[in-house]
Amino acid sequence: MLAVSKNPILHTHSFESRRFQYVQFASPGVYHAFVEKQCKQLFMDNAQTLEMIIKNAQTRIVKSSDWYGNPPPNALRDLQEHRYFGKMELLEVIAPKIQKELDRYTDLVEDDLLKRPQLSANSKGLGVFSFDRVMMGLYKIPFTKRSSELERFHHQLKIELGKDKATTVKNTHLYFENKSSSKPTLTLTVLAGANANTKGDALYYVGIAVALLTEYLESCHIAVAIDVLLGTSFGVHTIVSAIRVKHFEDSLDINQLLVLASDPRYFRFNGFKGLIALADYCGINIPNGLGRIDDTITDAYLKYVPNTLLFNQSYSIDSAVKEVSRILLEYTQKVKTR
Question: How far apart are CA 145 and CA 151, in angstroms?
């Protein structure tokens, strides 16, 4: 039997005289399935808004607009099927600047605050057996002429079984030092997208900065989870989809993070579809302009979903680098006050 998908839980709260609603999705796949399903059963007004978004996209494509970033899409299909971040080369541009901040941070913090796990050898059987270490002191067990017939039989048996060798190396097992049993964790929350007057190419930086920061933190044995927020405010409503793109135990899928958090081609079409679908799920008619991105989105979310650090939207390389520095500082302060 096919599993029946459950409707996601809709959380509703009041925030500063506004109605705040959000839905948490366990993965991008779960989120995309929700959007596609909801868009097939929209209220009439929301269905018309979606049609308008599609028509506007077709017009921009004809005009080769850079609103979706460069290079501009050639057909509507390029927007509908977009699932791969097209500016991976920016990683090489941004990485050196962010690395300077990471190196500076590593030099400044106390040794016991940011201990990276180090590989150590032992003779107690702790960790993983290292064949390479054994080979460094490998020698054949000598056979003596005075051995008894039984001893010669056993020696020949060892030769045939490949067990006629020994090693002078005692520390044959490897394990990580500085590896705490209670691994420190950090949840990063990223607000995706930008308002209409922001150039498409300006959206690329935040996701790349978060990806590089995450790789650095995990190299320091800090488990990182990442949530991407797709939200909007209009009238008395603030609505948010919170998509978990990385769980603590998972390795980072950089492409998945960058598409959801930093890709104008994705956000300004599929992201818009997601906003319409969420509003419809909340029982609201979203305005034709789809509302606006403002501080209410993150302020309300952080109030009801605490214990996370917000990586603010950054529309330039320099602002993205500053955010990396600020996150590291906030994390340091949190750790010291525990």
Answer: 10
CA angle 223, 228, 229 (to 5 degrees): 140
Q: For residue 161, which amino acid is it?
A: L
**Identity of the highest mean pLDDT range in 4-8, 47-51, 69-73, 326-330:** 47-51
**Terminal Cα distance for the chain, rounded:** 48
Say which residues have a Cβ less than 8 Å from residue 120's Cβ, sequence separation at least 6. 174, 175, 176, 177
Please, what's the b/e burial string for 244-254 (b: 16 or more CB within 10 A of its CB; e: otherwise)? bbbeeeeebeb
Q: Is residue 239 part of a domain?
A: yes
Inter-axis angle of helices 90-108 and 205-219, to 10 degrees? 40
> Is the pLDDT confidence value at 181 over 50?
no
Identify whether residues 56 and 139 lie together within a single domain.
Answer: no
**Which range of residues forms the domain containing residue 85?**
11-114+180-336
Q: Are residues 204 and 300 in the same domain?
A: yes
**Domain shared by 105 and 126, yes or no:** no
CB atoms within 10 A of CB 134: 15
Half-sphere exposure of 242 (CA within 13 A, CB side): 23
Residue the block writes with tokens 């607000």:
191
Closest listed residue to residue 259, CA positions, set 64, 29, 101: 29
pLDDT at 305: 93
- Among 144, 162, 177, give the residue marking a domain's end: 177
123 and 30 share one domain = no
- Residue 283 near residue 50, CB atoms below 8 Å: no
The 10 Å Cβ neighbour count of residue 67 is: 19
The answer to whether 298 and 229 have CB atoms below 8 angstroms apart is yes
pLDDT for res 6:
79
For residue 87, pLDDT over 60 is answered with: yes
Kindly report the pTM of this predicted structure.
0.77
pLDDT at 105: 78
pLDDT in tens, 141-150: 565 556 666 6
